[in-house]
Amino acid sequence: MEEILSQFIIDNFGLSVFIMVVIVIGIIFVSIWCYKVYAKVKKIDELPCDRHKDKMYEHDNAVTRIETSINFLTKEIDTAMKTFQHMNVKTDSFTKTNSPLSITEKGWEMVHRLGVDTMFEKNWPRINKLISEGVDTSSAYDINNFCIEQAVVFPEKFLSDEEISHLKEDAYQTGNALASYMKVIAVMSRDRFFEENGMNANDIDAKDKE
Q: Which residue has the higher pLDDT, 206 or 31?
């Protein structure tokens, strides 16, 4: 039923609408959980000691369920993006969604055209520190995810405000999303970190198939 509904949306409204529907549903789902947790926490101080303990236990379980839901949603979106690529549906022209994520020819053209390689070299010391301190494992899979998530959500951790504005201007003129540019930065960061620490990007694919 879900596959039929998904195909109906894609056929009649387009891929972009389908992706937005998936994301909005996910946000609504997580928001409901967050509201419930907030409501519980707000009442905790009014409860007797024993009930306080029970409510804290419930709160911990609720947080765990939220984390599980977010992880599930992330994997579902990632799976959808990979499916689109296998169907030759372009969702991002700068990177390929196959595991591990890699930069396309068009992505490298953008890097050289905008001087992103120079930006990256300039910011590499702080990026290297961010990865070293932000990932508490030596797992290639975890490092890969950390780089992508941090670069897309917090671009200011990887580039200066002026550099980000430069990318935003090009994104506006070309109709691309800033996230597409930051994924390229993420791949460059991941690959440099792997190179300097004797790691192999193929280990990402091994973990991804588990």
A: 31
Residue pLDDT, tens place only, 49-96: 555 556 666 666 666 666 665 555 555 555 555 555 555 545 578 998
User: What gap in Å lies between CA 30 and CA 159, rounded to an integer?
Assistant: 30
Contacts 24+ apart (CB under 8 A), 203-206: 203/139, 203/140, 203/141, 204/99, 204/100, 204/140, 204/141, 204/144, 205/99, 205/100
Give the amino acid at 12: N
What are the boundaries of each domain within the chain?
A: 2-86, 95-208
Q: Which of 118, 116, 109, 175 is nearest to 151 (CA)?
A: 116
Has residue 17 got a pLDDT over 90?
Answer: no
The model's pTM is: 0.61
- In 3D space, the residue among 66, 68, 65, 210 whose CA is nearest the CA of residue 139 turns out to be 210
Burial 110-138 (b: 16+ CB within 10 A, else e): bbeebebeebbeebbeebeebbeeebeee
Task: Take residue 209 and report the two structure tokens written for it.
Answer: 């198939």
**Both tokens assigned to 26:** 């996910």
Three-class secondary structure of residue 95 per DSSP? strand
- Taking Cα atoms as reference points, which of 98, 119, 96 lies closest to residue 166? 119
What whole-number distance in Å separates Cα of residue 75 and Cα of residue 186? Answer: 18
The first and second tokens of residue 159, run together, are: 């580039």
